[in-house]
Fold:
Amino acid sequence: MSKPRIPQGTRDFSPTEVRKRQYILNTLRTIFETYGFQPLETPSMENLTTLMGKYGEEGDRLIFKILNNGLHEKKDSDKEKLNSEWNKVLEKPYSSSIVTERALRYDLTIPFARYVVMHQNDIALPFRRYQMQPVWRADRPQKGRYREFWQCDADVVGSTSLINEAELLCIYQSAFHQLKIPQVKVKINSRKLLAGLAEICGMPDKMMDITIAIDKLDKIEWTGVVAELQQKGIPDDGIEKIGKVIQLKGDNDTQLAALAEIMKTSETGLKGIEELKQTLSYYAELADKNWTSEIVVDISLARGLNYYTGVIVEVGCGAVKIGSIGGGGRYDDLTGLFGLKGVSGVGVSFGIDRTYDVMEELDLFPEQLVSGTKVLLINFGGAEEKYALGVLNKLRHVGLAAEIYPDAAKFDKQMKYANKRGLPYIIIIGEEEMRQHMVSLKNFTTGEQKMLTIHECIEALKA
Amino acid sequence: MSKPRIPQGTRDFSPTEVRKRQYILNTLRTIFETYGFQPLETPSMENLTTLMGKYGEEGDRLIFKILNNGLHEKKDSDKEKLNSEWNKVLEKPYSSSIVTERALRYDLTIPFARYVVMHQNDIALPFRRYQMQPVWRADRPQKGRYREFWQCDADVVGSTSLINEAELLCIYQSAFHQLKIPQVKVKINSRKLLAGLAEICGMPDKMMDITIAIDKLDKIEWTGVVAELQQKGIPDDGIEKIGKVIQLKGDNDTQLAALAEIMKTSETGLKGIEELKQTLSYYAELADKNWTSEIVVDISLARGLNYYTGVIVEVGCGAVKIGSIGGGGRYDDLTGLFGLKGVSGVGVSFGIDRTYDVMEELDLFPEQLVSGTKVLLINFGGAEEKYALGVLNKLRHVGLAAEIYPDAAKFDKQMKYANKRGLPYIIIIGEEEMRQHMVSLKNFTTGEQKMLTIHECIEALKA
Structure:
C-alpha cells in the first residue's frame, strides 16, 4: 500500500496549529462584533457563471472547477454529445455546463456581492459584514502560497460616509494591538490623489502608468521610476511634479497641506486630499489611546487598480521580512456585477496565513495555547481508577480541561504520554492519597509535587 | 443579467444563522477541550486515491471530483491522449488522474485515519481528536439533506479501554445538557451482542440479516420482523430467542442480567454484555448529577454494520420528529486502510444541522444571539457626530458591541435601520445631552428613554 499524501499546496493543521489559528480568528471575530459587523458564510461552491470573468483571464484559469456527477450514467445515450462537450472544455475550461457547472470559491468578495444582490430586500443597509472562510486557487504552490487558504474580510456596503473608512482603520489597529504585533504600519492613500497626480501632469489618461511606475520606487529607486515615466510618455515637467510629490516629507498634516498646494488645479486630487483629511479626523475621534501603530499617508501606495475608487490602505509589519498583512479600500460598484447598481462599499482584508507566520516568528502566541489539557490523571487501575474518575468528574465540572490515561499502563508509559503532549500537570492517586481523601499534584515544569485536598488541587490548577 | 443563484443543495448562512451555528460549535468545542480532546483540521481536498473505495460503490459515485487545471494548455500536444482519458472517466469517474486527481472530503473519518497514519511518529497515543468541518456529497438535495454540510466528530484512537466509551457518553450528555435540548435519549448496544444473538440462533453467519431485520421493528412490527427472519432462513427456535431478547423489559441492569442468561452459550455475546456493563459503570463514576438524559440499552440498535466492532450508540430527541442527532461506536482497524494495523478506535458524531433544526423548532437559542450589536448611536452630523464618536470609542473600549449610523441621515431612516437589525438600544445625542455631558439611552423593547452620564450608560448596557 502506498503511503497516503495530501494534495500539493494543501495543509493539515495539527492541534497546536488549529489552536493558534483559532486564537487569531477569535480575536478578529470579537473585534468585528464590537464594531457592529455581522458574520456571513457562503457555500464553498459557487456556480461557474457567478465566478467566471470576475477575476481576469488569469483568475478564470486558477479557479478549481468541479466535475459534474453522473456523467458516466449518460455515456451510453449521449456519448457523442459528451465528447463534443469535452472538446469545448479543452478549448476553454468553463465552456461546458454539462462537464462542469460548479467551482470552488476563489475569494470572499464576489460571493459577498452575490449575497447582497440575492438578499437586497432582507438586509438592512448599510450592511456591515465579516467573513472568515477558506478560498481555493490553482496557483503553483510555493513557500507561503497555498491552494487552500483562509481569507478574512470586513466590508460595509450601502454607505459613502468616511466614518466607515475610519472604523476599518480602527479595526486594523485594534486587531494588531491585541495580537501584540509590533512595528505595524498602516499606509493610506486615495485613488483620487493618484488620478489628480495624472491630471496635474496633463496626462489624465496615464494614471495607471504613473501609479505602476511610482509603486516600484522601493525596488528601482527614483532614477528607475523617471526612466519608466519617460518611456510611458510623461513630459518632463510632469515628472518633476511627480518627483516633488513623492519626496514630500513630514507628518500627515504637513504632507497633505503641501499636496493641496501642488494639486490646486485638480478637483479630483483636492477631493482625494479632503477625503484623507476627513478619514484621519474621524479616526482621531475613534482611536484608542493605547494603539501605537502609525497611520501614514503614502502617495506611492497602489492597490487593486481595476477595483478601488477612493481611499486605499495597506498594512505592513516592520519586524518581519514579509509582504503586506492586510489591505483594502473603497470600491464603487461591486454589486453592479450582478445587476444592483449604486451600492458603494469599503472593505479590508486580513492576511491570516501571514499574520500567523509573523506571530510564529516573533513568538507571540500565548503559551497556554499549546495544549488545552491542563492535567492528566495517572491511571493505576482498580480502586485507584475509580477514585480518579470521581476526581476527574469534579475537575471537569468546574471547567478544567482534564483527562485520565484510559488504561492502567506502566507509569513510565503514562509519563511519556504526558510529556509528549506537553501537559503542565499530572495527578497521582495511590493508596495513601485515597486513605487521606487527597491527591498528589505534580508540576511538570518545576518537578514540584504536593499532596492536596481536591478543593486545594482545583484552586492550584485554576491559578 | 440573470439573477445570481447558489448551487442546488448549498446554503448561505445569514448573520443570525452563523451566530446560532457558532453557538452550537463553540459549546461543543469547549466540552471537547474539557475532556482533553484536541482539534484537527484537514484540507477540503484529498487525493482521489485516498477517498476511493472507502465508502462503497454508492459513496464513490457521490464524491465530488475536481477537474484538473491546465488541461486546455495540453490540448494541442496531447489531444488524443486527453480524449482517451475522457473516455475512461465516462466509464468510471475516478479512473483518470489526468482528468481528475483530487476530490472534496466526503466525511471526516477517512481524512482522520490518513492523518494518523501520516503522523504516527509525531502524535502521542492514545490520540483524542475532535474535528468540525464541512463535507460534500453529490446526493440528490431534499429537505434537511445538503450537498455541503458540517460534520463534527470526536474520536480516540490507540486505546481499547472502555473509559473512552464512557467519556464519549459523557460528552453527549454534557453537550445536550448545555444546549438545553429536552427528551434526549442515548441508545447503546454492542456489535458483540448482535453477533451473540446470531450465535445462539445457531446462525453465526447471519448476524447482518438478523440485525437488519430487528432494526426495522419500529416500522414493520414484530410480525413483519418474523416474516423477514423466516425468509432469511432463521429457524423457528432462533426466532423465538430473538423475540425473547427484543421484548426484554426493565432498566439496564435487569435487561443485561436477563440477556446474560439467554446468551450464556455465546462467548461473544457475554463479552458484549460485560463491555456494556463496564461502560455503564465507568459512566456512572464520570457522570454529572445534573445530566438528565437517559442512557438505554437497546439491542435492536444497528449502526455502521461494515464498520463498528464493539459498543455502538445513537442519540435521539423525543421532543421533535427528526432522525438521530448523533451516533458512533468502536471500530477496530480504521488506519489499516492506509497500512497501519492494530490501532483500535472509538468515536462519536454530532449531527450539527439536525441539532440546529431541533433547537430552532424548540426555540432554544439564547435571545442575545440574534444581533451582536447592543446599541446604535444616532448620527445628527456636525458637533453631535463628533461627540458621538467619542462616546462610541468609550463603549467599545469596555467591550460593548456598538455602532454609529455612518451618515447623518433622517432620524426615521436611522430608526428603521435599528429596527430592521433588531438592535436592543439606541443612543441619542443632541445639544442638550452635549451641554450636560450626557447621553440619552432608549430601550427599543420598552420604549423607555433616560438621560444618563456615559458611565451610567455603560453600566446600563452591561447589565
Remarks:
- Chain A touches chain B through 114 residues (CB under 8 Å).
- The two ends of chain A are 50 Å apart (CA to CA).
- Residues 189 and 312 of chain A are 5 Å apart (CA to CA).
- The mean pLDDT of chain A is 93.
